[in-house]
Structure to design on (368 residues):
């Protein structure tokens, strides 16, 4: 870490993204790796991470919106890319102009893709997610429309609802969905012989090689986060995001003095409390107040009091020798200590996806 950030900095280790792509490509075996870079690369930066993923072993990309596809093309990322989300009106033509593929799950979508000149259509099947996709009683109409131009069908896809749950009542549902997907696509193989079958997300790719089919679509693990909410190192993954800030102010509080809105924390003894200029407007959620830790001087120090819009306060301890402008790691590694996205997610009652996606644009991204 060099220099002192003005407020907060989000450092992205692109070598980690390349490494993680390699881990996922090996796990996928002969299947292609589709790097999912939607939501600005889960908050990491889509064009930068797309390039790193392609260098690490991905052969294709996936995004959620046509705007995200256009951002990749504007950055000269020209790898095959699939738009996963719903499209409407002129968006179909924009996908075609950007040379992208599109997902479709009803006859109207297939017809719109054909009329717009989209070269690759991926037929989405709902095998149990209950979201986008053709249900069993809707498949015949979808296939009939797609069969008017079968060479345009580039893929057959579904999405697993609970691949990240290895225990509990949903643990077997992924295999049930896979059985349904195999059965349906077996009937469609003759109609669309060149179509890639793809279903597995990060969790499914890491848990069961049999779920890889012809391609896997991996997002969260690409960025070094564990899709099961555990330790990324258990799967050979390296977190790509580090969030740093600084000690902007330090003061000594007496016993029973409070810090922050609502006086939710009072000093149990005289201590030194510092302000770190980062808050919920930066994506550091209010749920972390009085729960999380940051790293200062190579040690864990607790966040005390409520998280403000732009600031948090941390208890450095009465004997600390920390000084104003000393660096702080909000998420990442310092010395022998670390704060993972998974830890912040657990403390916030959410998932690591939301932690990284929620880091605001005003937190400057720096690429290593």
């Amino acid at each position: 870490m060099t220099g002192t950030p003005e407020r907060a900095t989000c450092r992205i280790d692109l070598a980690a993204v390349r490494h993680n792509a390699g881990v996922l490509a090996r796990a996928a075996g002969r299947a292609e790796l589709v790097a999912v870079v939607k939501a600005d690369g889960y908050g990491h930066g889509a064009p930068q991470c797309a390039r790193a993923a392609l260098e690490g072993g991905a052969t294709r990309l996936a995004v959620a919106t046509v705007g995200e596809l256009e951002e990749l093309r504007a950055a000269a990322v020209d790898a095959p890319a699939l738009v996963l989300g719903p499209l409407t009106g002129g968006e179909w033509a924009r996908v075609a102009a950007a040379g992208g593929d599109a997902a479709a799950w009803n006859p109207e979508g297939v017809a719109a893709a054909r009329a717009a000149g989209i070269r690759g259509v991926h037929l989405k099947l709902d095998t149990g997610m209950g979201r986008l996709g053709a249900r069993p009683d809707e498949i015949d109409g979808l296939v009939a429309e797609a069969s008017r131009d079968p060479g345009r069908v580039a893929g057959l896809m579904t999405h697993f609802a609970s691949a990240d749950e290895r225990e509990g009542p949903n643990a077997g549902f992924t295999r049930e969905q896979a059985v349904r997907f195999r059965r349906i696509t077996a009937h469609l193989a003759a109609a669309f012989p060149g179509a890639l079958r793809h279903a597995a997300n990060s969790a499914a790719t890491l848990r069961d090689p049999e779920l890889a089919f012809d391609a896997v679509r991996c997002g969260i693990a690409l960025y070094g986060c564990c899709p099961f909410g555990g330790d990324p190192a258990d799967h050979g993954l390296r977190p790509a995001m580090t969030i740093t800030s600084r000690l902007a102010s330090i003061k000594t509080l007496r016993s029973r003095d409070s810090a922050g809105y609502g006086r939710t924390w009072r000093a149990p003894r005289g201590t030194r409390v510092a302000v770190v200029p980062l808050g919920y407007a930066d994506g550091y959620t209010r749920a972390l107040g009085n729960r999380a830790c940051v790293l200062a001087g190579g040690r864990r120090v607790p966040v005390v009091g409520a998280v403000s819009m732009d600031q948090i306060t941390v208890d450095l301890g009465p004997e600390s020798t920390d000084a104003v402008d000393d660096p702080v790691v909000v998420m990442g590694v310092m010395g022998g200590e670390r704060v993972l996205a998974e830890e912040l997610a657990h403390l916030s009652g959410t998932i690591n996806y939301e932690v990284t996606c929620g880091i605001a644009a005003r937190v400057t991204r720096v690429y290593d």
